Amino acid sequence: MDLSDALDKLNSHLPLKAKQSQLEAQLRELHIAILRHFATAGQALTRAQIAQQLGNDGVAATLARLADDDLVVLTPDRRNIAGAYPFSAEERLHAVLVNGHTVRAMCALDALAIAPMFETATRIDSRCHVSDTPVEIHMQGAELLSARPGDIRVGIHWQGTSGCAARNLCLEMVFLRDAETAQHWQQQDSDNISLFELPDAVRFAAAYFRPLLEDDA
């Protein structure tokens, strides 16, 4: 699958930019602020911080709207933000060091997106989905500085989101330690699994996520 087709397919499964563009201007600005706060502070905006922008009466309705559009993931009590693609405040396999903070990424593709989204340096610590081999990737913006092991692949097992990609599709967007491991994993469901070399996966992630920081609606 080439990158253009992959981008179209991901946007059909999880149309983040399209959903963001449909928001009222104030909510689009808030969504961008949520993403930037994850990158700079290493955590989600709190209800109090959201209330400073919207007023206390608007917080619950705003969080519900963003969650219904799958632009954010909420805690089980639906009172606080548990994630906003590509970031997660929940425990996830993919840890990303950015701006001195360790954050979690929803999936392998999300982890690769953070450096090019914010034109910053990151270190990704994760594991191969099949072998549990440690994966370590250093990036500066869209540039791959180093990767260990040296032949990492990113795999996507395409599936529906059932309204929240974080609970299903994201769990099947994974790092694989090398081409042989990736091909073996793909054979489980070759019609629905796509594989990407690491540089291609970075370009894919950047093309998908960068538009979320552009309020061009």
Summarize the helix and strand pattern as letters: HHHHHEEEEEHEEEEEHEH
Strand order of the largest sheet: 1-2-3-5-4-6-7-8
CA(first)-CA(last) distance? 29 Å
Structural class: alpha+beta
CATH class of the largest domain: Alpha Beta
By CATH, the topology of the largest domain is Beta-Lactamase
Sequence stretches where pLDDT stays below 50 over 5 or more residues: none
Characterize the structure shown.
With 217 residues, the chain is an alpha+beta fold. The chain has two domains: 16-84, Orthogonal Bundle (Arc Repressor Mutant, subunit A); 90-213, Beta-Lactamase. Helix content is 38%, strand content 24%. The protein is built from eight helices and eleven strands. It has helices at 3-13, 16-21, 25-41, 47-54, 59-68, 108-118, 179-186, 198-209; strands spanning 73-74, 81-84, 87-88, 94-98, 101-105, 121-127, 134-140, 143-148, 153-157, 173-176, 193-197. The strands form two sheets. Strands 1-2-3-5-4-6-7-8 form an eight-stranded antiparallel beta sheet, covered by helices on one side. It has a three-stranded antiparallel beta sheet with strand order 10-9-11. A hairpin with a 6-residue loop joins strand 6 and strand 7 (134-140). Helix 1 packs across helix 8 (198-209) and helix 6 crosses helix 8 (198-209). The longest helix has 17 residues, at 25-41. The model has no long low-confidence stretch (mean pLDDT 93).
